[in-house]
């Protein structure tokens, strides 16, 4: 699996207040999008998330988002080491996504930029 980078997930009460802080810290402009009922801002290596607690409680279980060159290869590699695919691969706003549980119990989201055909 070719890991291209990692994004940390941060749940915040007020996205509009948090964005300028993270933009200043990272020197990056926020890119905003919705994920269900959750508002998300990608700022540098951070995903800031704000929304209903019922949805955030699920998202908090995911340790980080890992960018890979190909989600299908990530699935194969994770299964080879005893990992378990929980959801996906599915089309997402940034590419295909997949959520997997590693053998140690950690849960990660994997994302690539490959379009589903």
From TrEMBL:
Coiled coil: none annotated. It comes from the Bacteria. PROSITE patterns: VOC. Residues 1-113 form the VOC domain. InterPro entries: Glyas_Bleomycin-R_OHBP_Dase (IPR029068), VOC_core (IPR037523). This is VOC family protein.
């Amino acid at each position: 699996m070719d890991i291209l980078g990692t994004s940390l997930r941060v749940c915040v009460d007020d996205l509009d207040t948090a964005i300028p802080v993270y933009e200043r810290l990272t020197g990056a402009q926020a890119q905003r999008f919705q994920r269900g009922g959750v508002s998300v801002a990608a700022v540098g290596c951070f995903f800031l998330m704000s929304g209903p607690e019922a949805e955030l409680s699920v998202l908090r279980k995911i340790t980080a988002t890992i960018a890979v060159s190909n989600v299908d290869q990530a699935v194969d590699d994770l299964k080879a080491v005893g990992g378990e695919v929980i959801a996906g691969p599915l089309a997402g706003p940034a590419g295909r996504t997949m959520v997997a549980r590693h053998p140690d119990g950690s849960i990660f989201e994997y994302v690539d930029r490959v379009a589903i055909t």
